[in-house]
Design goal:
The structure is a homodimer. By secondary structure, chain A is of the alpha/beta class. The first copy, chain A, folds into 3 domains: 49 residues, 434 Repressor (Amino-terminal Domain) (Orthogonal Bundle); 116 residues, Response regulator (Rossmann fold), CATH 3.40.50.2300; 159 residues, Response regulator (Rossmann fold, 3-Layer(aba) Sandwich), CATH 3.40.50. The first copy, chain A, contains 14 helices and 11 strands. Chain A has a 6-stranded mixed β-sheet, sandwiched between helices. A 5-stranded parallel β-sheet of chain A has the order 2-1-3-4-5, with helices on both faces. In chain A, strand 3, helix 7 and strand 4 form a beta-alpha-beta unit. In chain A, helix 2 crosses helix 3 and helix 11 crosses helix 12. The structure holds a DNA duplex.
Chain lengths: 362, 362
DNA sequence: TTGTACGCGTTATCAA
DNA sequence: TTGATAACGCGTACAA
């Protein structure tokens, strides 16, 4: 009954008793055709269940209508949501998304980019370890393929959908100062390979200096250390003087909360913790997590929109940073030593409202 | 300097002073070539930064090395993790993943499938509302394109990576019975369009009957209702007699926890709640969520593996269900009325250990 | 209004 | 060992 091979426009033309060019014109509404042949072609196409081959089309038109997307991992909801936003935006403009994740591996980043390039993607959405040094990313540029980064602070050569990591981190320093903290730490995963993490630290350190806080201690840990509360506790107990820790993402902040009791410290009385990202979970926790709230889906959407203008031949200018919000939470209070009569450890509000980056810049 | 157009094998052949066929053989190591020409070709290719066009290849070989993936949403970590698992597995075998999400919309499901088909995907990984009635899915079958479902209970025509929704739900009924609950409810989102939800309800209801519990009340809600605690509380307060609720996923279960206080009921003393999926968050909550724990990443991986055998021409047999675990949590205890001296509402352990599907079947 | 023929980048065939 | 050529499915220039 049904032929098990692909139905091509040639088959349709044959069945409709016309040439392929005519069938193409009818099916694409791209040229003249008599009402009668139009009917015959459309009928045949419908009957046979004809669908265009995007491959043949891509080869001919040099447009694959496909965008490549490279991210560290879909297991992190921050990235998954960004991809979700980008996908929706692109699909509504006829583009499909080729998605691959690197598991935070530098070499895999470039392997994936090379593969995506060979797939003839029309554009690229990228979050990776080292965009500046990536050969395949430079090749994309050389081939005039629009690229938009996500999550990265803007780089000289590449537009990026982002929140200002430095400004957001500075706000954390401000909050710590408001609550009376003086000795703080910055807890980072993959510090050397993540410009996002480094920029957060830089912004944090600069603002600490501006506020006359002690220079923050940088505490780098591995994934294993992060996932093992006892080990994390040990690492943290090397810094008994710190009263507040800024974790470079929410998962790390939550890990600190779990590790704190193991070193005999209570959050927030003995140790305040602030995260980054604002994942939904943070709200639902026993002690709601104080954090910088971002909007990953909007970020993906913005990146996609910029890419679309690039795809249409427009100029891709540097993107304005997306807004972030400092979200107050039960993991941040004044340090016990500094306020001896505050034994309960309940979060005390500082005299200023939570900061929102919207307040500063549109 | 650099030409802004794609470098093809023709360019390489020209530069190496040989024919395209020879260049192809060298670059693919697919045929004979003298050491000397081999060197010239490889050198030219490297110099010019040549990469094969997967499009040209796909057209010629009728293999796109691309797999289409349709899921409801990447914003749900359960699906995102499954995609992550599948992507890793497929990439290690040279396949790329074309990902699209439908936002749980029936029509979009089919639109996306049609698009993926036109992209000449070699295989399909699918979670959708109504696989049985999908025309494009049937077309995939007609074109001999391997398809593996994810999350769906096995259907007559399609293999599916899954946990047994009915068995898992039955285990929840068993737990409720152990704790002395008699009047239970099943809270569902998109009940009519989700076979997963329906199968959970069926399994739950059947086991309730087997255990002489009252038939569970089916409570269907909309997304809006789920996201607004006050409304959800109102909906739930229509069922004051229920002492335990089985929510069709963890997010719903968490929503119930948030809504309960609004109707003056405490979890778990006045109302026990059990979820489904076992998302990481549940563990970290104030009251850890009792739930059915599943392994979405393994599910994606399994689906990908099956698909790979199909891609290699092997037979895709029905898949054994993946293991699930009942995870005890602080949201489940005995009903207050049934154990009047248990005012604290602390979870009391029943006399049997938590169930794991591994115990029953390999 | 219609159809023929070419080229997109690749690989397989086949003759040299 | 090599290279010319056909074919994959499509859109389009061009001729009819």
């Amino acid at each position: 009954m049904t032929d098990r091979t692909r139905i091509t426009i040639k088959d349709v033309a044959l069945a409709a008793g016309c040439g392929v060019a005519t069938a193409s014109r009818v099916l694409n509404k791209s040229g003249p055709a008599s009402a009668e042949t139009r009917a015959r072609v459309e009928d045949a196409a419908r009957r046979m269940g004809f669908v265009f081959s995007a491959t043949g089309r891509a080869l001919q038109s040099r447009k694959s209508m496909t965008v490549g997307c490279l991210i560290p991992s879909l297991a992190n909801p921050v990235f998954a949501e960004a991809v979700q936003g980008a996908q929706e935006e692109l699909r509504s403009h006829g583009y499909q998304l080729l998605v691959a994740s690197s598991n935070y591996d530098d070499e895999t980043d470039n392997d994936i980019l090379t593969t995506l390039l060979s797939k003839d993607v029309d554009g690229l959405l990228v979050t990776m370890a080292a965009p500046q040094e990536s050969v395949p990313l430079a090749q994309a540029r050389a081939r005039d393929i629009p690229v938009c980064l996500m999550f990265h602070d803007p780089l000289p050569d590449w537009p990026s959908a982002h929140v200002s990591n430095a400004q957001a981190a500075a706000e954390v320093a401000r909050q710590f100062a408001l609550y009376g903290h003086e000795r703080t730490g910055f807890l980072a995963l993959r510090f050397s390979t993540s410009d996002r993490s480094r920029n957060r630290f830089d912004g944090f350190r600069a603002q600490c200096a501006a506020l006359n806080l002690a220079p923050p201690k940088l505490i780098e840990i591995t994934e294993t250390e992060a996932n093992t509360p006892s080990i994390l506790a040990q690492r943290l107990s090397n810094h008994p003087d710190l009263t507040a820790i800024f974790a470079s993402n929410d998962f790390l902040a939550i890990a600190v909360q779990k590790a704190a009791p193991l070193m005999g410290r209570h959050v927030p009385q003995d140790l305040s913790v602030v995260g980054f990202d604002g994942i939904e979970v943070g709200r639902l926790l026993d002690r709601s997590l104080a954090t910088i709230e971002t909007t990953p889906e909007a970020m993906g959407r913005q990146a996609a929109q910029t890419l679309l203008t690039g795809l249409q031949g427009g100029a891709m200018t540097e993107l304005a940073p997306l807004p972030f919000t400092f979200r107050a939470g039960a993991t941040l209070s004044g340090p016990r030593a500094k306020s001896p009569d505050d034994d309960r450890g309940a979060a005390q509000s500082p005299s200023v409202p939570p900061f929102t980056s919207n307040d500063k810049q549109g």
